[in-house]
Amino acid sequence: MGDSLHLHSLLIHGGIDGDKTTGAVNVPIYQTSTYKQSGLGENTGWEYSRTGNPTRAALEKLIADLEGGEYGLAFASGLAAIHTVLSLFSAGDKIIISDNIYGGTFRIIDKVFKPLGLRYEIVDTTDTTKVEAAIDPETKAVYIETPANPLLSVTDIAATAELAKKAGVLLIVDNTFLTPYLQRPLTLGADIVIHSGTKYLGGHSDTVSGLVALRDKAIAERLYFLQNAIGGVLSPFDSFLMIRGIKTLGVRMDRHVANATHIATWLAKSGYVSKVYFPGLPGDPGYEVQMKQADGPGAMISFVLKEEYDYRAFFRNLKLITLAESLGGVESLVCHPASMTHASIPADIRRQIGIADELIRFSVGIEDVSDLISDLRQAIEAARKE
Ligand SMILES: *Cc1c(COP(=O)(O)O)cnc(C)c1O
Protein backbone atom coordinates (compact mmCIF):
# COMPACT_ATOMS: atom_id res chain seq x y z
CA MET A 1 0.00 0.00 0.00
CA GLY A 2 0.73 3.49 -1.06
CA ASP A 3 4.07 5.25 -1.06
CA SER A 4 2.05 8.16 -2.42
CA LEU A 5 -0.05 8.50 0.73
CA HIS A 6 0.67 11.23 3.24
CA LEU A 7 1.87 10.24 6.70
CA HIS A 8 -1.49 10.70 8.47
CA SER A 9 -3.04 8.26 5.97
CA LEU A 10 -0.10 5.85 6.06
CA LEU A 11 -0.52 5.56 9.84
CA ILE A 12 -3.97 4.09 9.21
CA HIS A 13 -3.59 2.40 5.82
CA GLY A 14 0.16 1.67 5.59
CA GLY A 15 1.73 -1.75 5.76
CA ILE A 16 -0.78 -4.53 5.05
CA ASP A 17 -4.24 -2.98 5.30
CA GLY A 18 -7.11 -5.14 6.58
CA ASP A 19 -7.70 -8.78 5.65
CA LYS A 20 -8.25 -9.95 2.06
CA THR A 21 -9.87 -13.24 3.09
CA THR A 22 -12.81 -11.82 5.07
CA GLY A 23 -12.76 -8.09 4.40
CA ALA A 24 -12.11 -7.38 8.08
CA VAL A 25 -10.77 -3.83 8.26
CA ASN A 26 -8.14 -4.90 10.79
CA VAL A 27 -5.25 -7.30 10.37
CA PRO A 28 -6.29 -10.55 12.13
CA ILE A 29 -4.26 -11.92 15.03
CA TYR A 30 -2.71 -15.07 13.55
CA GLN A 31 -2.24 -16.85 16.86
CA THR A 32 -0.38 -19.83 15.45
CA SER A 33 3.10 -21.23 15.84
CA THR A 34 3.13 -23.27 12.63
CA TYR A 35 1.49 -23.66 9.20
CA LYS A 36 0.33 -26.69 7.22
CA GLN A 37 2.56 -27.76 4.35
CA SER A 38 0.86 -29.51 1.44
CA GLY A 39 3.92 -31.52 0.49
CA LEU A 40 7.62 -31.59 1.13
CA GLY A 41 9.05 -28.19 0.35
CA GLU A 42 5.58 -26.85 -0.51
CA ASN A 43 4.36 -24.16 1.90
CA THR A 44 2.23 -21.04 1.82
CA GLY A 45 5.24 -18.79 2.44
CA TRP A 46 4.73 -19.22 6.17
CA GLU A 47 6.55 -22.01 7.98
CA TYR A 48 7.05 -21.22 11.63
CA SER A 49 6.11 -18.09 13.60
CA ARG A 50 9.59 -17.26 14.90
CA THR A 51 10.64 -17.01 11.26
CA GLY A 52 7.53 -15.20 10.11
CA ASN A 53 3.95 -14.48 11.17
CA PRO A 54 1.34 -12.57 9.12
CA THR A 55 0.31 -10.22 11.96
CA ARG A 56 3.94 -9.40 12.73
CA ALA A 57 4.67 -9.05 9.00
CA ALA A 58 1.90 -6.41 8.72
CA LEU A 59 3.55 -4.39 11.50
CA GLU A 60 7.00 -4.87 9.94
CA LYS A 61 5.73 -3.55 6.60
CA LEU A 62 4.05 -0.65 8.39
CA ILE A 63 7.20 0.56 10.21
CA ALA A 64 9.16 0.29 6.94
CA ASP A 65 6.53 2.44 5.16
CA LEU A 66 6.40 5.03 7.95
CA GLU A 67 10.18 5.44 8.13
CA GLY A 68 10.58 5.63 4.36
CA GLY A 69 12.42 2.30 4.43
CA GLU A 70 12.20 -0.90 2.40
CA TYR A 71 12.44 -3.44 5.21
CA GLY A 72 11.00 -3.66 8.73
CA LEU A 73 11.49 -6.03 11.66
CA ALA A 74 9.55 -6.39 14.92
CA PHE A 75 10.96 -7.64 18.21
CA ALA A 76 9.76 -8.51 21.70
CA SER A 77 11.33 -5.32 23.12
CA GLY A 78 13.44 -2.36 22.11
CA LEU A 79 16.42 -4.12 23.63
CA ALA A 80 15.75 -7.30 21.65
CA ALA A 81 15.86 -5.08 18.53
CA ILE A 82 19.10 -3.46 19.71
CA HIS A 83 20.58 -6.89 20.53
CA THR A 84 19.86 -8.09 17.00
CA VAL A 85 21.29 -4.96 15.34
CA LEU A 86 24.46 -5.09 17.48
CA SER A 87 24.87 -8.73 16.42
CA LEU A 88 25.84 -7.40 12.98
CA PHE A 89 29.26 -6.70 14.51
CA SER A 90 32.16 -8.96 15.47
CA ALA A 91 34.95 -9.10 18.03
CA GLY A 92 37.49 -6.36 17.33
CA ASP A 93 34.94 -4.03 15.70
CA LYS A 94 34.39 -0.63 17.27
CA ILE A 95 31.21 1.38 17.53
CA ILE A 96 30.86 5.01 18.49
CA ILE A 97 27.95 5.79 20.83
CA SER A 98 26.36 9.06 21.93
CA ASP A 99 27.26 10.15 25.44
CA ASN A 100 23.55 10.55 26.11
CA ILE A 101 22.01 7.18 25.51
CA TYR A 102 19.27 5.01 27.00
CA GLY A 103 20.68 3.25 30.09
CA GLY A 104 19.73 -0.23 28.86
CA THR A 105 21.46 0.39 25.54
CA PHE A 106 24.66 1.32 27.35
CA ARG A 107 24.27 -1.74 29.59
CA ILE A 108 23.94 -4.26 26.73
CA ILE A 109 26.93 -2.71 24.94
CA ASP A 110 29.10 -2.54 28.06
CA LYS A 111 28.03 -5.73 29.86
CA VAL A 112 27.03 -8.10 27.04
CA PHE A 113 28.87 -7.12 23.83
CA LYS A 114 32.09 -5.70 25.28
CA PRO A 115 32.98 -9.03 26.98
CA LEU A 116 32.49 -10.65 23.53
CA GLY A 117 35.10 -8.28 22.07
CA LEU A 118 33.03 -5.42 20.66
CA ARG A 119 34.72 -2.13 21.50
CA TYR A 120 32.96 1.16 22.01
CA GLU A 121 33.84 4.80 22.42
CA ILE A 122 31.54 7.33 24.07
CA VAL A 123 31.47 10.57 22.11
CA ASP A 124 29.55 13.83 22.35
CA THR A 125 27.86 13.28 18.99
CA THR A 126 26.26 16.75 19.05
CA ASP A 127 29.72 17.82 17.84
CA THR A 128 30.31 16.12 14.47
CA THR A 129 34.03 16.97 14.51
CA LYS A 130 34.35 14.75 17.62
CA VAL A 131 32.58 11.91 15.79
CA GLU A 132 34.91 12.30 12.81
CA ALA A 133 37.97 12.28 15.10
CA ALA A 134 36.80 9.08 16.85
CA ILE A 135 36.38 7.03 13.65
CA ASP A 136 39.32 4.66 13.20
CA PRO A 137 39.90 1.73 10.78
CA GLU A 138 38.08 -0.70 13.12
CA THR A 139 35.00 1.52 13.47
CA LYS A 140 31.92 -0.08 11.95
CA ALA A 141 29.08 2.13 13.15
CA VAL A 142 27.99 5.33 14.83
CA TYR A 143 25.02 4.77 17.15
CA ILE A 144 23.03 7.83 18.16
CA GLU A 145 19.80 8.89 19.85
CA THR A 146 18.38 12.31 19.02
CA PRO A 147 17.02 13.98 21.03
CA ALA A 148 19.04 11.89 23.45
CA ASN A 149 18.03 10.42 26.76
CA PRO A 150 17.76 12.13 29.27
CA LEU A 151 19.31 15.54 28.45
CA LEU A 152 17.50 15.93 25.11
CA SER A 153 20.70 16.87 23.32
CA VAL A 154 20.34 16.98 19.54
CA THR A 155 22.68 15.35 17.02
CA ASP A 156 22.64 16.51 13.37
CA ILE A 157 21.55 13.34 11.55
CA ALA A 158 22.34 14.49 7.99
CA ALA A 159 25.81 15.79 8.92
CA THR A 160 26.62 12.60 10.84
CA ALA A 161 25.29 10.46 7.96
CA GLU A 162 27.52 12.29 5.52
CA LEU A 163 30.70 11.66 7.47
CA ALA A 164 29.66 8.07 8.25
CA LYS A 165 29.16 7.46 4.54
CA LYS A 166 32.55 8.98 3.74
CA ALA A 167 34.22 6.71 6.31
CA GLY A 168 32.24 3.64 5.18
CA VAL A 169 30.58 3.08 8.57
CA LEU A 170 26.89 2.60 9.38
CA LEU A 171 24.77 5.27 11.04
CA ILE A 172 22.24 3.74 13.44
CA VAL A 173 19.59 6.05 14.92
CA ASP A 174 17.34 5.27 17.89
CA ASN A 175 14.23 7.24 16.88
CA THR A 176 12.12 6.32 19.93
CA PHE A 177 11.71 9.86 21.26
CA LEU A 178 10.29 11.35 18.05
CA THR A 179 8.80 8.47 16.02
CA PRO A 180 8.54 8.66 12.22
CA TYR A 181 5.68 11.12 12.66
CA LEU A 182 8.22 13.79 13.67
CA GLN A 183 11.56 12.54 12.30
CA ARG A 184 12.57 10.10 9.54
CA PRO A 185 16.32 9.39 9.87
CA LEU A 186 16.51 7.10 6.79
CA THR A 187 15.45 10.03 4.59
CA LEU A 188 18.31 12.06 6.16
CA GLY A 189 20.89 9.42 5.27
CA ALA A 190 20.89 7.06 8.27
CA ASP A 191 21.28 3.34 7.55
CA ILE A 192 19.25 1.71 10.33
CA VAL A 193 16.46 3.10 12.53
CA ILE A 194 15.61 1.47 15.85
CA HIS A 195 12.56 1.98 18.06
CA SER A 196 11.38 0.99 21.42
CA GLY A 197 7.79 0.56 20.23
CA THR A 198 6.88 0.37 23.91
CA LYS A 199 6.83 4.16 23.99
CA TYR A 200 4.99 6.53 21.58
CA LEU A 201 4.36 4.02 18.77
CA GLY A 202 2.34 1.72 21.03
CA GLY A 203 1.36 4.80 22.96
CA HIS A 204 -0.80 3.31 25.71
CA SER A 205 1.73 1.80 28.13
CA ASP A 206 0.29 -1.66 27.48
CA THR A 207 2.87 -3.37 25.20
CA VAL A 208 6.63 -3.88 25.21
CA SER A 209 8.07 -4.06 21.68
CA GLY A 210 10.96 -3.09 19.43
CA LEU A 211 11.08 -2.16 15.74
CA VAL A 212 13.77 -1.73 13.10
CA ALA A 213 13.55 -0.14 9.65
CA LEU A 214 16.14 0.13 6.88
CA ARG A 215 16.68 0.37 3.10
CA ASP A 216 19.73 -1.79 2.36
CA LYS A 217 18.86 -5.27 1.09
CA ALA A 218 22.05 -7.04 2.16
CA ILE A 219 21.90 -5.67 5.72
CA ALA A 220 18.17 -6.48 5.88
CA GLU A 221 18.82 -10.10 4.87
CA ARG A 222 21.46 -10.40 7.58
CA LEU A 223 19.05 -8.88 10.13
CA TYR A 224 16.22 -11.27 9.16
CA PHE A 225 18.70 -14.12 9.59
CA LEU A 226 19.71 -12.79 13.04
CA GLN A 227 16.08 -12.15 14.04
CA ASN A 228 15.25 -15.79 13.35
CA ALA A 229 18.54 -17.10 14.77
CA ILE A 230 18.32 -15.12 18.04
CA GLY A 231 14.54 -15.39 18.26
CA GLY A 232 13.48 -12.28 20.18
CA VAL A 233 10.37 -11.79 18.03
CA LEU A 234 7.15 -9.91 18.81
CA SER A 235 4.06 -12.04 19.45
CA PRO A 236 1.02 -11.89 17.12
CA PHE A 237 -1.16 -10.26 19.81
CA ASP A 238 1.42 -7.62 20.65
CA SER A 239 1.93 -6.99 16.92
CA PHE A 240 -1.82 -6.32 16.68
CA LEU A 241 -1.67 -3.92 19.65
CA MET A 242 1.20 -2.04 18.00
CA ILE A 243 -0.72 -1.67 14.72
CA ARG A 244 -3.73 -0.46 16.71
CA GLY A 245 -1.61 2.06 18.62
CA ILE A 246 0.11 3.41 15.52
CA LYS A 247 -3.23 4.32 13.90
CA THR A 248 -3.61 7.25 16.34
CA LEU A 249 0.08 8.22 16.48
CA GLY A 250 -0.45 11.47 14.55
CA VAL A 251 -3.24 12.89 16.69
CA ARG A 252 -1.51 11.76 19.89
CA MET A 253 1.84 13.30 18.92
CA ASP A 254 0.23 16.61 17.96
CA ARG A 255 -1.28 16.84 21.44
CA HIS A 256 1.89 15.54 23.18
CA VAL A 257 3.98 18.22 21.45
CA ALA A 258 1.49 21.03 22.13
CA ASN A 259 1.31 20.11 25.83
CA ALA A 260 5.09 19.73 26.17
CA THR A 261 5.83 23.02 24.45
CA HIS A 262 3.33 24.78 26.71
CA ILE A 263 4.77 23.20 29.87
CA ALA A 264 8.44 23.75 28.96
CA THR A 265 7.68 27.41 28.28
CA TRP A 266 5.80 27.68 31.59
CA LEU A 267 8.58 25.92 33.55
CA ALA A 268 11.30 28.15 32.07
CA LYS A 269 9.41 31.26 33.22
CA SER A 270 8.09 29.82 36.49
CA GLY A 271 10.97 30.70 38.77
CA TYR A 272 10.92 27.11 40.07
CA VAL A 273 13.74 25.64 37.95
CA SER A 274 17.45 26.21 37.51
CA LYS A 275 17.51 24.35 34.19
CA VAL A 276 15.07 23.16 31.52
CA TYR A 277 16.15 20.82 28.73
CA PHE A 278 13.74 20.90 25.77
CA PRO A 279 14.81 21.26 22.12
CA GLY A 280 11.61 23.19 21.34
CA LEU A 281 12.66 26.25 23.35
CA PRO A 282 14.42 28.94 21.32
CA GLY A 283 17.76 29.29 23.06
CA ASP A 284 18.09 25.55 23.74
CA PRO A 285 21.46 24.43 22.26
CA GLY A 286 19.70 21.88 20.04
CA TYR A 287 16.88 24.14 18.86
CA GLU A 288 18.21 25.05 15.38
CA VAL A 289 19.18 21.51 14.35
CA GLN A 290 15.96 20.11 15.82
CA MET A 291 13.81 22.51 13.78
CA LYS A 292 15.84 21.70 10.65
CA GLN A 293 15.68 17.90 10.84
CA ALA A 294 12.39 17.16 12.60
CA ASP A 295 8.76 18.26 12.39
CA GLY A 296 8.60 19.08 16.09
CA PRO A 297 10.50 18.94 19.37
CA GLY A 298 8.84 15.82 20.78
CA ALA A 299 7.30 15.73 24.25
CA MET A 300 10.13 14.85 26.63
CA ILE A 301 11.29 17.55 29.03
CA SER A 302 14.05 17.29 31.62
CA PHE A 303 14.54 19.86 34.35
CA VAL A 304 16.29 20.61 37.61
CA LEU A 305 14.44 22.35 40.44
CA LYS A 306 16.09 25.29 42.21
CA GLU A 307 17.98 24.44 45.38
CA GLU A 308 15.18 25.62 47.65
CA TYR A 309 13.05 22.67 46.49
CA ASP A 310 13.57 19.06 47.53
CA TYR A 311 13.24 16.88 44.41
CA ARG A 312 12.42 13.77 46.46
CA ALA A 313 9.48 15.60 48.04
CA PHE A 314 8.41 16.79 44.57
CA PHE A 315 8.09 13.19 43.36
CA ARG A 316 6.17 12.23 46.52
CA ASN A 317 3.69 15.09 46.22
CA LEU A 318 2.59 14.58 42.61
CA LYS A 319 -1.09 13.55 42.39
CA LEU A 320 -1.98 13.28 38.69
CA ILE A 321 1.46 12.77 37.14
CA THR A 322 2.77 9.26 37.85
CA LEU A 323 6.26 8.37 39.03
CA ALA A 324 7.24 5.44 36.81
CA GLU A 325 9.80 4.11 34.36
CA SER A 326 8.98 4.42 30.65
CA LEU A 327 7.60 7.24 28.54
CA GLY A 328 5.50 7.99 25.51
CA GLY A 329 2.14 6.82 26.81
CA VAL A 330 -1.03 8.90 26.84
CA GLU A 331 -0.60 9.44 30.59
CA SER A 332 2.05 11.80 32.00
CA LEU A 333 4.98 10.06 33.68
CA VAL A 334 7.97 11.42 35.55
CA CYS A 335 11.14 9.62 36.46
CA HIS A 336 14.42 10.16 38.28
CA PRO A 337 17.10 9.12 35.74
CA ALA A 338 19.93 8.77 38.29
CA SER A 339 18.11 6.04 40.25
CA MET A 340 15.78 4.67 37.54
CA THR A 341 16.32 4.70 33.76
CA HIS A 342 20.04 5.53 33.98
CA ALA A 343 20.97 3.67 37.17
CA SER A 344 22.81 1.09 35.01
CA ILE A 345 25.31 3.81 34.03
CA PRO A 346 28.04 4.09 36.70
CA ALA A 347 27.79 7.28 38.83
CA ASP A 348 31.11 8.72 37.61
CA ILE A 349 30.14 8.34 33.93
CA ARG A 350 26.70 9.77 34.74
CA ARG A 351 28.24 12.89 36.26
CA GLN A 352 30.74 13.18 33.41
CA ILE A 353 27.92 13.29 30.85
CA GLY A 354 25.86 15.72 32.89
CA ILE A 355 23.10 13.58 34.41
CA ALA A 356 22.76 15.34 37.80
CA ASP A 357 21.29 13.45 40.74
CA GLU A 358 18.63 16.20 40.88
CA LEU A 359 17.54 15.75 37.24
CA ILE A 360 13.82 15.10 36.67
CA ARG A 361 12.59 13.63 33.38
CA PHE A 362 9.02 14.32 32.33
CA SER A 363 7.12 12.43 29.62
CA VAL A 364 4.29 14.84 28.93
CA GLY A 365 1.00 13.04 28.29
CA ILE A 366 -2.12 14.15 26.48
CA GLU A 367 -4.21 15.16 29.51
CA ASP A 368 -5.57 18.70 29.79
CA VAL A 369 -2.48 20.87 30.03
CA SER A 370 -3.91 23.08 32.81
CA ASP A 371 -4.39 20.01 35.04
CA LEU A 372 -0.75 19.05 34.42
CA ILE A 373 0.51 22.53 35.31
CA SER A 374 -1.66 22.63 38.47
CA ASP A 375 -0.18 19.31 39.58
CA LEU A 376 3.40 20.42 38.89
CA ARG A 377 2.82 23.70 40.73
CA GLN A 378 1.30 22.13 43.85
CA ALA A 379 3.98 19.40 43.99
CA ILE A 380 6.81 21.93 43.67
CA GLU A 381 5.27 24.30 46.23
CA ALA A 382 4.86 21.39 48.66
CA ALA A 383 8.54 20.50 48.12
CA ARG A 384 9.87 23.86 49.31
CA LYS A 385 12.57 23.21 51.92
CA GLU A 386 11.94 24.58 55.44
C1 LIG B 1 12.85 2.32 26.36
C2 LIG B 1 13.92 2.61 25.40
C3 LIG B 1 14.70 1.59 24.85
C4 LIG B 1 14.53 0.14 25.24
O1 LIG B 1 13.30 -0.36 24.81
P1 LIG B 1 12.48 -1.51 25.60
O2 LIG B 1 11.24 -1.61 24.79
O3 LIG B 1 12.26 -1.01 27.00
O4 LIG B 1 13.33 -2.73 25.58
C5 LIG B 1 15.67 1.94 23.91
N1 LIG B 1 15.87 3.24 23.56
C6 LIG B 1 15.15 4.24 24.09
C7 LIG B 1 15.41 5.64 23.66
C8 LIG B 1 14.16 3.97 25.03
O5 LIG B 1 13.46 4.97 25.56
Question: Architecture of the largest domain, according to CATH?
Answer: 3-Layer(aba) Sandwich
Mean pLDDT: 96
Tell me the Rg in angstroms.
Answer: 21 Å
Percent range for helical residues? 25-40%
Largest sheet: 7 strands, mixed
Question: If helices are DSSP runs of H or I spanning 4 or more residues, what is the number of helices?
Answer: 14
Shape: globular
- In CATH's first tier, which class of the largest domain applies? Alpha Beta
Distinct small-molecule ligands in the complex: pyridoxal-5'-phosphate
Number-wise, the strands total: 12
Structural class estimated from helices and strands? alpha/beta
CATH topology of the largest domain: Aspartate Aminotransferase, domain 2
Pattern of helices and strands: HHEHEHEHEHEHEEHHHEHEHEEHEH
Descriptive report:
By secondary structure, the protein is of the alpha/beta class. It has two domains: 2-247, Type I PLP-dependent aspartate aminotransferase-like (Major domain) (Aspartate Aminotransferase, domain 2), CATH 3.40.640.10; 250-382, Aspartate Aminotransferase, domain 1, CATH 3.90.1150.10. It has helices spanning 7-13, 54-67, 78-86, 103-113, 128-134, 157-167, 179-182, 217-230, 236-247, 249-270, 287-293, 311-317, 347-352, 369-381, and strands at 71-75, 94-98, 119-123, 139-145, 170-174, 192-196, 210-214, 273-277, 300-305, 322-323, 333-335, 360-363. Strands 1-7-6-5-4-2-3 form a seven-stranded mixed sheet, with helices on both faces. Helix 7 links the parallel strand 5 and strand 6 (192-196). The longest helix has 22 residues, at 249-270. The structure holds pyridoxal-5'-phosphate. The site of pyridoxal-5'-phosphate has 15 residues, from helix 3 and helix 4. Residues 77-79, 102, 104-105, 145, 149, 174, 176, 196, 198-199, 208, 210 line the site of pyridoxal-5'-phosphate.
